[in-house]
Write a structure and sequence with these properties.
The protein is an alpha/beta fold and 450 residues long. It is 27% helix and 23% strand. Strands 1, 2, 3, 4, 5, 14, 15, 16 and 17 form a 9-stranded mixed sheet that branches. An 8-stranded parallel sheet has the order 6-7-8-9-10-11-12-13.
Length: 450
């Protein structure tokens, strides 16, 4: 119990706080894991103080698309290693995807993941359940279970066995439940029809965006929106990559939100494949610069809702297999914030817009309770950044079990120097502080549910 003479458990002093009503230099007081007060607090009593003069104080970063591979693929990543990497990158909350082994498609599989969190997770965490033809009717109850982030739908095959690739099954998924459905939108029929384009011996990874072309993404997004419209079901299109999809999404703003990734905003074909080889292979693919510029335009005009990392680790040995046997996916939870802060430094977006995309945006889209903003009553999840700090990213810096980053050698400008999880300093100066205290968090639509 806090002594009666103490006003706060912790005060963050002198930083520039990025709040919903603007950036202001002020103090921030924490009490019982929540933000209790903003304003001059120099005369108030606190158990601990954090000097943030010269630094920017952001709401804790939310990465709403990560694949931590546990259970079943722990050699690629675990909840422990993945959340440690996240926290070192300034991320305090993650939403984890269901394509593990076994996939998260039942109450038992979700309960198994929840049981793995205490004492191992360094960030707060929740888990998506995967949609299949077999569990479509059960999704309405699954999505209401504590710890469930919502429903994830794979329209095109990627890592794992989850796939809903025909309209009847898609319709069945959309009609059951009410929470927003996160969608991997690639047209499986088109992918199968074009598979021959990459099956000839000696085919290089540069053919990846030729096989999984723009039309495969556009067709899937169009079909998803059309079916969702029939039932008024809210959808969130993950890792959008094409200029053509943006027009569709703009027409359905009442129903659909969407995400882009730092990879698709930073890299472009063919150069990334020439430089990185299969390390640049992901689904949907990195595409030509015209698509990247279209995504940036969507960011600038306010069309994009979320930036998520799509952290999808594989070992370097797996990625070194000859294409197309090499798996798709790259890590990114630890580099999400530094890479995007560099884009802020270079003038591509403002810091306040970035906060919308990596904190308040994910909280709004998924209905995350008490996170995503600096405001009295919110969880005291805080990410402190030095906008002037220059760091060269390297493979050796990565805490992920896979041990590499597509941004190896990149100089970033702007870097997380501390992170608070519910008011406790959990990361400082590149080191984790204390034992893991991450826990499963709540959503507005599941609060009070059984």
């Amino acid at each position: 119990m806090r002594p009666a003479s103490r006003d706060f458990d912790l005060v963050v002093t002198g930083g520039t706080c990025v709040t919903p009503w603007g950036a202001l230099e002020t103090d921030l007081g924490v009490r019982d894991g929540r933000i209790a007060e903003l304003g001059p607090l120099s005369g108030r009593v606190a158990a601990e103080r954090f000097d943030a003069h010269g630094l920017h104080v952001l709401p804790g970063i939310i990465d709403s698309q990560v694949h931590f591979r546990e259970p079943g693929l722990e050699h690629k990543e675990t909840i422990a290693s993945g959340t440690a990497a996240a926290l070192l990158g300034g991320v305090t909350t993650v939403l984890e995807m269901p394509n593990t082994v076994p996939p998260t498609t039942s109450p038992e599989a979700l309960a198994d993941k929840l049981a793995r969190v205490p004492g191992r997770a360094s960030t707060d965490i929740a888990f998506f359940v995967g949609a299949t033809e077999a569990n479509a009717e059960a999704l309405a109850s699954l999505e209401r279970l504590p710890g469930c982030a919502g429903v994830k739908l794979f329209m095109g095959s990627s890592t794992g066995s989850l796939l809903v690739d025909d309209e009847a099954a898609l319709t069945d998924v959309m009609r059951h439940g009410r929470r927003r459905v996160a969608v991997h939108a690639e047209d499986e029929a088109r992918l199968r029809a074009r598979r021959h384009l990459v099956e000839a011996p000696g085919t290089r990874v540069e053919a990846h965006p030729v096989w999984r072309d723009e039309r495969s993404a556009e067709r899937a997004t169009e079909r998803c929106l059309r079916v969702a419209r029939r039932f008024g079901r809210r959808v969130h299109i993950l890792h959008v990559t094409t200029a053509e999809e943006l027009d569709l999404l703009e027409e359905h703003r009442d129903l659909a939100t969407f995400e882009v990734t730092p990879q698709h905003l930073t890299l472009s074909a063919p150069g990334c494949y020439e430089t990185l080889g299969t390390l640049a292979q992901m689904n949907p693919p990195i595409r030509e610069a015209r698509h990247r510029e279209a995504l940036w335009h969507a960011v600038r005009v306010g069309l994009v809702d979320v930036i998520g990392s799509d952290h999808a680790p594989h070992t370097r040995e797996e990625k070194a297999r000859p294409y197309p046997a090499s798996p798709s996916g790259m890590p990114g939870v630890q580099t999400l914030l530094p890479v995007m802060l560099t884009h802020v430094h270079e003038g591509r977006l403002s810091l306040s817009r970035l906060v919308e995309l990596v904190a308040s945006g994910p909280a709004r889209v998924y209905g995350i309770a008490r996170k995503g903003r600096i405001a009295v009553g919110a969880d005291a999840d805080i990410t402190v950044v030095d906008l002037k700090r220059r760091v060269h990213l390297t493979h050796a810096m990565m805490r992920s079990a896979c041990g590499w980053t597509p941004f190896d050698g990149m100089e970033v400008v702007g870097f997380p120097v501390a992170a608070l999880l519910r008011g406790r300093i959990a990361m400082r100066d590149g080191e984790l502080v204390g034992p893991p205290t991450g826990r499963v968090f709540a959503f507005e639509e599941t609060l009070g549910s059984g």
